[in-house]
Amino acid sequence: MAVCPTSRLYAEGVDAEALTKIAQAGVFQATPVGSFPTDRTEKNYALVSSDQAVNLFPLLAKPYDGFIEYIKGEDTIDEESMLVMHGAMMGFSLSTATAYQNDSAALVSEALLERGVLSPMRKSDVELALHEAISNAVVHGNLSVQSNMQGELAKFAQFAQELQNRMSSPDALKRVDIACTWDHEFLDVVIIDKGRGYDMSMLPRDVDPFAPAGRGLAIIRSLALSMTVSQGGRISTLRFLT
Amino acid sequence: MDYKVRKTDSTTEVLLSGRLTFTDHEQFRSVMALFDEPIKGQRFVFDLSGLEFVDSSGLGMFLIARDTADRNDCQLVLRGAHNQVRRILEIAKFGTIFNIED
After folding, report:
1. What is the enclosing helix (H) or strand (E) of B25?
2. Predicted confidence pLDDT, tens digits, chain A (242 residues)
3. What is the largest CA-CA distance in chain B?
4. Is the torsion defined by CA of A22, A23, A27, A31 positive or negative?
5. Which residues in chain B are contacts of A157 at CB distance < 8 A?
6. Are A25 and A79 in contact (CB under 8 A)?
7. C-alpha–C-alpha distance, residues A174 and A143, integer Å
8. How many C-beta atoms surround the C-beta of residue A44 within 10 A?
């Protein structure tokens, strides 16, 4: 991979070693620890510690185009994630544990509002659709917990237990990537998980109020202009009007 | 999500607040423990006026509560939804299967 000199990586609560490690994946150029982005014509990403990643709201005011969590325990740098972040106009690459704990969709939609991509009117629908897509990526994608355990209390308890168990497995270190691009007409948000995908023929087409599960996808379909899935359901692209 | 309970002779009001999402299974299970008491014929009100956000898992929780209420001959009402919460109830067509009050 060639280093693109216009994508810079800044340390936010991580050390130079972490910065160098991520930069070695090839698409980002590390900057000295303590430096701060000044050139808005370049793409500036922040490499944040997991502690900071849980609450990124205070960092949204800084001129970053996105945030990459430095995940301690991540064996090899996820090159797919780094390339996706590099190609985005605004991107978030977070661990499953972080995406589960914080309101990632609220964060992404707030960032889009602050950058003038979304109006306050549009923000609420975008947030809900993104929330559903991100929770699918976390629960069904990276943690491979099936939703057919919902629907009644005993099964719901089983679902919750399974989720807790999986959260303490190495799968909780897998990345969830959220990459936004936009123009004067459309906002596209790509959500990528590192799971095994799902059987797309099982997807519900319409909102069924009685359905015990699968409601999330139906909700996305009713809020987004379009939703396309690829790589067996591992990659979802939601399109909205800006 | 946080909740408070307000009981009268015939009604149990559960005042939910914050965000009700797929991460709230523990809190939801403690809400559901309210249905373990002898409650036949009672009226349950989920007051949603303090809720800012509900996701599809939250809707699933309402469905579980409704089924539990039905089995105990109880009535379950969803009351006071606004903004996003009202919107998701509409999208999911919950008005067709729930007793929804302003």
Report:
1. helix B25-32
2. 444 456 899 999 999 999 999 988 778 999 999 999 987 788 999 999 999 999 999 999 999 999 999 999 888 889 999 999 999 999 999 999 999 998 999 999 999 999 999 999 999 999 999 999 999 999 999 999 987 656 688 888 888 899 999 999 999 999 999 999 999 999 999 999 999 877 666 665 566 666 655 788 889 999 999 999 998 889 999 999 99
3. 34
4. positive
5. 25, 29
6. yes
7. 9
8. 21
| ipTM of model over 0.95 | no
Residue with tokens 């996003």: B84
CA distance A237 to chain B (A): 19
- Numbered residues of chain A with Cβ closer than 8 Å to any chain B Cβ: 100-101, 103, 106, 124-125, 127-128, 131-132, 135, 139, 150-153, 156-157, 159-160, 163, 207, 209-210, 212-213, 215-216, 219, 222-223
